[in-house]
Write a structure and sequence with these properties.
This protein is an all-alpha fold. It has four helices and no strands.
Length: about 60
């Protein structure tokens, strides 16, 4: 079975392994195998996943 590890996915996306784990959690993605291998299509899914954190305030609210 072919798959990617969290470290490999982190290198592809240019983010930390912890950020990959967080995005998997937010996207509801779990590993394909017990060895924590992920389907390569997951990379595209978490690339679009929320990065977390607070949303920015509207500019009108900040200017007051």
């Amino acid at each position: 079975m072919e798959g990617l590890t969290i470290k490999e996915i982190a290198a592809i996306l240019g983010i930390t392994p912890d950020a990959v784990k967080f995005r998997f959690y937010r996207a509801g993605i779990s590993p394909m195998t017990k060895e924590a291998l992920y389907d390569p299509s997951c990379v595209d899914r978490i690339r679009e996943a929320s990065k977390g954190g607070r949303p920015r305030k509207d500019k009108a609210v900040r200017d007051e």
